[in-house]
Amino acid sequence: MKYLAAYALAWLGGTSHPTVEKLQEIIEAAGSDFDKAKASKLVEDLKDKSLEEVVAQGTAKLGSVSLSAGGAAATTTTTDAGKAKEEPKKEEEKEEKEEDIEGAMDLFGGDEW
Question: Acidic residues bias located where (predicted)?
């Protein structure tokens, strides 16, 4: 994934067909390990394609994934006799709760805000 991200960064930076060396420069600048074989494979696979084309193909594939693929099934509660058991509807209380975020402010410098 980091190789594809580096490729996209190089492309966004103006390099229409990034090289292995450019990917190495980006990945090592981020402090990550570099595998020349993986980078070479990516560059070879994308050498005749534009990044717009690759993204469009990926988007089309994602669009074909059905939301029901997770296998979510409708549930029905039944009694031993096989009759549907009706559950009483619970009335939801509509109360607005104030969130206490004072402790979270320490993440951003506490009193410095």
Answer: 93-113
